[in-house]
Amino acid sequence: MPKQILITIICAVLGAIVLLGLGYSAGYFAVLTSEKGKTELQIEQLEKAADALKTLSSSKVISCFAVLGEVTKIDGRDITLKSTGDSLTIHIKEDAKVYSSAKNGSFGTGATSSVQQQVEFKDIKKGDFLNIGVKLLPDGQLEGQVINILPVFTNK
Question: For residues 13 and 15, what is the distance between their CA atoms, to the nearest angstrom?
Answer without folding.
Answer: 5
